[in-house]
Amino acid sequence: SQPDVVKNLARISFTDYTTTIHSINVMALTIGYCFYNHMTEKETRQYGLAALLHDLGKTEIPGKILTANRALTDEEFMQMKKHPAIGFDILEYTGIGMKIATEGALEHHEKLDGSGYPEGKTNISECGMLLGIIDCYEAITNDDRPYRTAMQPMAALQILKGDVEKGKYNKKIFATFAYSLTDFNRSGKYKDFF
Fold first, then answer.
1. CB within 10 Å: which end of the chain, N or C, has fewer?
2. Distances from the Cα of 173 to the Cαs of 4, 57, 76, 181, in angstroms?
3. Is the C-alpha dihedral spanning 117, 181, 98, 43 positive or negative?
4. How far apart are CA 66 and CA 46, in angstroms?
């Protein structure tokens, strides 16, 4: 029902296919989390849509930055760090009242210790906290970069666990997400991991 949002999604698929695949993967992982966490159908739809749209602000980032096959320069990274606020603005402009999606777009790079961006917030919505974890997990497990290779899932979870222990991510949301990946909590095999 919102052609402007659909148009922006189409634009990003033409300029940066990797972001399109990443957004779809983040959505699938988010929906898996919602099912595992017994969220309602309405909440699952809202969180899934927020996940799909979380990087919408990248439509306004130059393609040469999005598709750079090297580490970004400091100046380029400063531009890239604007995409959460841009995504928020795009979703707010549509006027469709997607509070969860707008929060997710704005907050998915924020950290509980204030070290994130774009605002350095410490009071982050549940969706923002969840998308921050899933966004990072998906990026480091599915994206080979010239300066690093994709990690195996358990190695990525170990990295994220370290960030949880440093106060960057919510421990309960992280544990629930990790369990949602394989349901290994019920097996007891990894009961001491978290």
1. N
2. 32, 25, 31, 13
3. negative
4. 27
The mean pLDDT values, 10 residues at a time, for the chain of 194 residues are 68 76 95 95 94 92 87 94 95 80 96 97 97 96 74 94 98 96 59 53
Asked if 53 and 154 touch (Cβ cutoff 8 Å), the reply is no
- Give the C-alpha separation, 41 to 18, whole Å: 28
Tell which residue, 22, 110, 107, has the closest CA to residue 66: 22
DSSP bridge partners of 145: 148
> What's the rounded Cα separation, in Å, for the pair 133 and 161?
10
Say which residue the tokens 């983040």 belong to: 26
Angstrom distances, CA of residue 146 to CA of 61, 69, 72: 20, 6, 11
Q: Is-contact 48 31, C-beta < 8 A? A: yes
